[in-house]
Predict the structure.
Amino acid sequence: MFSEQRLVKALAEALHSGSITLERLESVSGGDINQAGVAETSVGDFFVKWNAAAPPDLFAREFEALEALRDSGSELRIPEPITWEGPDGAGSPGFLVMEYLPSAAKSADWQESYGRGLAQLHRTSSDAFGFDHDNYCGTTPQPNEWADDWVAFYRDQRLRPLFERVCTRRSVSSNQKRHFERLLERLPSFIGDDDEPPALIHGDLWSGNLHTDEEGHPAILDPAAYYAHREAEFGMITLFGQWSDRARAAYDEIWPMPGDWRDRNPLYRLYHVLNHYLLFGGAYGAQSFAIVERFVD
Ligand code: ADP
């Protein structure tokens, strides 16, 4: 059971406040993975997520990713993480508390701000591909060991480990396994033939993780952030996200995408389709292998 007592105590510690009272915890729906609510307290409203079945460090990793996205200085609104706790071991789930962003109608320049803000985020670079910690996409573990070579990172820390998980949980034929292995072998001939710098990406930018704040500005939520080739971000955007001509034009004004990015895009979509096959089963399997078979036979 979610413990309101733990929530109030953690909030009081994080805010260095002697006494906080919880007036109401109003349930919110919409996420894929967690339970969530708005905590109305004596010191303001907060957004709270909890999950009894989550890996114990899930919310610690989300907390860090939100901090990294905020540090980028992107004009995208990113909720400030306030505090988190793991499960208490006695049945009370871990939780994450962050700034609550009430939603309003989109501002007139929402699309431009989204495109510009995403390019500003991607302009945030690092010496290598990866992240300070391994983290999660949904609840799927994402290894993030620092690597200089993007193709090796994408093959060895994204596609291969995810495929191995899929093979243990879902049905995959020996033919499909052979095709997937061939794709991994040939990956260097399909992607990464450039010297694009590591770019900080949101990592799971489907439309459920795009939000509009109280002033009508675009906000991004629930990241699976790491430093990637920026084309990896567009795997999820083209699968289940939003990318209008106006957003694209604003992005390109800051940092034009290569003219042929769409040729490689299915290989970045593959990671997320495969993750959906792992998490939800069903037709995502056929959709994954249709992508693989476009590249190898
Ligand atoms: P999950 O991890 O379960 O996918 P999300 O973080 O995506 O959950 O949140 C679920 C929904 O709650 C979002 O689609 C959004 O509408 C809303 N939401 C998430 N974070 C906030 C926030 N900080 N302020 C206001 N609403 C939020």
